[in-house]
Amino acid sequence: MASSMKFLCVLGLILLVGTVVDGAGECGRSTPDNEAMKLAPCVGAAQDANAAVPGGCCSQIKRFSQNPKCLCAVLLSDTAKASGVQPEVALTIPKRCNFANRPIGYKCGAYTLP
Hints:
mainly alpha; two-stranded antiparallel ribbon; globular; signal; DIR1-like
């Protein structure tokens, strides 16, 4: 519960501060931090490898599965870090959602998608 509240507070702060939109970024016209805000249903699953992945999380992650560069940028974003996301756990979510066409083996910073 506390981590969800922390996540919402971080999201609110980011909305207040605003972000710069760059059309040439990993996620097109949106920033990874903006896209990370859409992954609120994934917070628990991104912190605990044994947690069930909610359907809402899988739906959001599926949007990124065709763009692994954006997925990596989102999962490694400042917003994700501030909400307690553990990258090595978060990167297992596409597999835990049972996506057959996930980007297996894609290098994501120091991590590799399983």
